[in-house]
Amino acid sequence: GTTALDGQVSYTSSGLGESWAVVRAGSGGGTLDGDVTGLTRSAWILASSDVANPWHEIVRLVLLFDTGTIPSSATIISARLRFVVNAKGNSFSGSIVVVASTPASNTTLVGTDYNQVGATALSATVTIASLIADDASYTSISLNLLGLAQITKGGITKLGIRIESDRSNVEPTWSSLGQDIVTIRASEAVATQRPILEVTYQV
């Protein structure tokens, strides 16, 4: 789109892997932006290497929504983020959580946006095990009070999703070649699969 985007930003280790601290706090570099590439799927991932204790990759999701039609005088009552899960993996019994994001652009992702995906939880955590990965059903996550405050009336609301262990900086117990991964349909998918931000407000 021309006013909002969705896509993923990542840090991928070189060689045999790196420590949790390095992979989590790295400068990023990898991007997959559906608005540029025409991708119909985006993912967030935590992946381990095959050598004891190093980690291979962390991927974070950026989701921007045009909320320009919400009047500046409106009172936000509730909101929920809805998306269709295409596939999942759950090696580390992980969860996901909604956060804020502040990418450099509203229309294109760059590698340094990896560190512009926030660490404050804007929702309750949702276990990966509970997600229905049938490529059709919508998963809904309600925003908490901090999440409601993140909604930008008359502008672009900038959200993200992280694996909870990444957000909270709690290193999972390592296992070889493991993955916590959730793949969702992006805004380039058909209308019945696109991510949705539903906002209830009154004026």
Short synopsis of the structure:
The chain is mostly beta strands. The chain contains four helices and eleven strands, in the order βαβαββββββαβαββ. β3 and β4 form a beta hairpin.
Task: Report low-confidence residues grouped into runs of 5 or more.
Answer: none
Radius of gyration: 16 Å
Percent helix, as a range, is 10-25%
Number of strands: 11
Sheet of most strands? 11 strands, antiparallel
Strand share of the residues?
35-45%
Layout of helices and strands, plus pairs?
Elements: E1 6-12, H1 20-25, E2 30-33, H2 34-37, E3 41-48, E4 55-66, E5 75-90, E6 95-100, E7 126-127, E8 138-142, H3 145-150, E9 156-163, H4 164-168, E10 179-185, E11 196-202
Antiparallel strand pairs: 1-2, 1-4, 3-4, 3-10, 4-9, 5-8, 5-10, 5-11, 6-7, 6-9
